[in-house]
Write a structure and sequence with these properties.
By secondary structure, the chain is mainly beta. The protein has three domains: 82 residues, no CATH class; 103 residues, Immunoglobulins (Immunoglobulin-like), CATH 2.60.40; 179 residues, no CATH class. The protein is 5% helix and 50% strand. The protein has two helices and 28 strands. The strands form eight sheets. The protein has a five-stranded antiparallel sheet with strand order 17-23-24-20-21, with no helix packed on it.
């Protein structure tokens, strides 16, 4: 009977709301605070909120809603366009220490072992469990990198405990810039930046190891890594030069005009993959870049071994810079060396770079490029 009376009072109060502009339910119904719109007073009864299976049950929530969520057994509110966590829940005091990006980050080189590190510290007297996923970390500023993994899916920290969490970064950036990492979870956040630069030195292997594929062009192009001037050329010899055609160069971002490159053979200007240049035996095959250019790539055709059509990619230096032939040629392992089953390497003197290449072609049983790699070197002034 009392419940019916209470319910009746509630209904009447609602219907008289428009008239009174204030509603008082329970004890002392004639006494209500001047700022109250709805007031409930009781010494032995309580307000029971709407109980729902979960906040997903409400299709169109609006700010200011408050419910009891049966899925989490707690009170939640809808604030700023989102449901809150449980009201009154004990949230351990956890802080994040931002370690930031770890590893080497160079443009045009695939990342290896790169990470973003945070340390979570529980400063409370309660145990805290935090779920983790790759989407916690958002990276921006550089195209080509992604967050590909996280070292653990969750951490449970007892009072005073800490844990290191590493997020794996992978991919390749095509140009220098600034990489930005924003990590956030719950009310924690961590932001760090990392400069992406050209590597000081780059090496490009233009063939697949000793006994390289036959009847194909083998190319080592430093410009695929950035503005690098070649300083070292090497190739592996089995019976003749046969594989591991590699150029190594120094970064020359200010000096080189990478948009102005021309491929040359001994016959003059040509293109990669063209049948241009010497095929003669018992002679040196020689290509020298024009004035005010520097070698940034090499290509040689392989029949059974490296055989002919040697070309250089020659890249212009920017206005204000110039080149010359410097100290002339530098031979690999001494003049005339054609030893087998070893790498033949020629390197320009310190401060000089490759302007031309000559390699001797044998005759007889092995009419191929066989060794005696020579370089024509130049300074860049």
């Amino acid at each position: 009977m009392k419940n019916k009376y209470f319910f009746t009072c509630l209904i009447l109060s609602i219907f008289t709301f428009k008239i009174n502009a204030q509603v008082k339910i329970g004890d002392n119904p004639t006494t209500i605070g001047v700022s109250s719109s709805l007031e409930i007073e009781s010494t032995n009864k309580a307000l029971v909120l709407t109980r729902i299976a979960s906040t997903d049950s409400i299709a169109n929530p609006v700010n200011g809603m408050i419910v009891y969520d049966l899925s989490t057994n707690c009170i939640k509110g809808y604030e700023n366009g989102a449901w809150t966590d449980c009201y009154g829940a004990t949230v351990p005091s956890v802080e994040v220490i931002c370690g930031g990006f770890l590893g080497t980050y160079n443009a045009n080189f695939a990342l290896s072992g790169a990470q973003y590190r945070i340390t979570l510290v529980n400063n409370s007297f309660n145990t805290a469990t935090i779920a983790l996923q790759t989407s916690d970390l958002v990276i921006s500023g550089i195209v080509g990198y992604t967050v590909s993994g996280v070292s653990t899916s969750s951490v449970t920290l007892t009072a005073g405990q800490s844990a290191i969490v590493n997020y794996t970064i992978s991919g390749t950036a095509s140009s220098p810039g600034t990489l930005i990492g924003n990590w956030s979870k719950l009310n924690l956040s961590c932001t760090n930046t990392q400069a992406i630069t050209w590597a000081p030195v780059a090496s490009v292997n233009g063939s697949n190891g000793p006994n390289s594929p036959d009847n194909a062009y083998h190319r080592s192009d430093l410009l695929t890594k950035g503005p690098y001037a070649a300083k070292t050329l090497s190739a592996y010899s089995t019976t003749a030069l046969d594989g591991n055609l590699t150029l190594t160069g120094d970064i020359m971002e200010d000096e080189l005009n990478v948009s102005n490159s021309v491929v040359y053979s001994s016959a003059g200007a040509t293109t990669w993959g063209a049948a241009s240049g010497s095929t003669a035996d018992n002679t040196f095959h020689t290509v020298i870049c024009p004035n005010n250019t520097i070698a940034t790539g090499i290509e040689i055709y392989s029949t059974i071994y490296f055989d002919w059509y040697m070309k250089l990619q020659c890249t212009a230096v920017n206005p204000g810079y110039s080149t010359d032939l410097g100290a002339g040629n530098v031979d690999a392992n001494g003049p005339g060396v054609t030893a087998d089953n070893q790498t033949h390497t020629a390197t320009c003197p310190v401060g000089e770079y490759i302007k031309g290449v000559r390699i001797y072609a044998s005759g007889g049983s092995y009419p191929y490029l066989d060794g005696d790699i020579g370089l024509y070197c130049t300074q860049i002034y």
